[in-house]
Write a structure and sequence with these properties.
The protein is of the alpha+beta class and 193 residues long. It contains 5 helices and 11 strands; from the N terminus they run αββααββββββααβββ. The strands form 3 sheets. Strands 5, 6, 9, 10 and 11 form a 5-stranded antiparallel β-sheet that branches.
Length: 193
């Protein structure tokens, strides 16, 4: 009976160890992946769709919302940043969370975390949506609506902007620990993609 129990415990420990080793390899494989800013969708500032502004379809109500936001000292920006993660290797990569930093005009502006599980299968690309929310009031408090118009006009049809950058740090749970990649990865829009 003792031999059977010892064998079960040994097999269970081996299974747990193999699982942890697979998770660690999956985290290491994230470093081999390529990260591309696919596009930005659902971009709103103070509840106004930025595409309305960039296409010249801004209404009087939209102007009122933006002006009210500046006067109220709260200019919320929300957007979904879609990141393509390409895994060129022969093994899957996985992530369970991601820290992000939003840079505006080259300076850190906001940061946050997304806690969703994704598997980037071997030889494939997975799109990971990242919800980014922040308040832009401090950026426009001096120059007002003119600075806001300048910022909004920097956005292209795919929602990306030369003024906005994103850095991410993917993480993976290994056993009972959350292990982050050692450094942030700058995610940029690759031309021709």
């Amino acid at each position: 009976m003792f031999v059977i129990c010892a064998t079960c415990v040994s097999l269970s420990a081996c299974t747990a160890l193999n699982s942890m080793l697979d998770q660690a390899a999956s985290l290491a494989n994230l470093a081999n992946c390529e990260y591309n800013l696919k596009n930005v969708t659902n971009l709103t500032i103070a509840g106004v769709n930025v595409k309305n502004i960039t296409n010249g379809n801004i209404s009087a109500g939209d102007v009122l919302k933006l002006t009210s936001a500046l006067v109220g000292k709260a200019v919320p920006m929300a957007m979904d940043v879609n990141i393509d993660i390409k895994n060129p290797t022969e093994k899957n990569a996985a992530l369970t969370a991601m820290d992000w930093i939003l840079d505006i005009d080259g300076s850190q502006f906001a940061q946050g975390n997304s806690a969703k599980n994704y598997t980037v299968t071997k030889q494939a690309t997975t799109t990971v949506p990242l919800g980014v929310n922040t308040d832009l009031y401090s950026m426009f408090s001096k120059d007002g609506i003119g600075a806001l118009k300048n910022f909004v006009s920097s956005f292209k049809n795919d929602g990306t902007s030369s003024k906005v950058g994103l850095r991410i740090k993917p993480m993976l749970n290994v056993g009972s620990y959350t292990v982050p990649m050692p450094n942030y990865i700058k995610v940029e829009k690759k031309t021709g993609v």
